[in-house]
Amino acid sequence: MNIRMVDTITQYQKIKDEIDLELNKVFESGAYINGPIVKQFRNNLSQFLNGAHVVACANGTDALQVALMAAGVQPGDEVITTPFTFVATVEVVALLGAKPVFVDVDPQTFNIDPEKIEAAITPKTKAIVPVHLFGQCSDMESILSIAQKHGICVIEDAAQSIGAEFTFSDGRVEQSGTMGDMGTTSFYPSKNLGAFGDAGAIFSNNDELADKAQVICNHGSEVKYYHQSIGVNSRLDSMQAAVLDVKLRYLKEYNQARNEAADLYDSLLSDCDDVFVPYRAPYSTHVFHQYTLRIKAGRKARDLVQAKLNEMGVPSMIYYPVSLHLQGAYEEYGYQPGDFPVSEKLTEEVLSLPMHTELDESQQTFIINSLKQALTFSKTEKV
Question: Hey, what CATH class is 8-248 in?
Answer without folding.
Answer: alpha beta
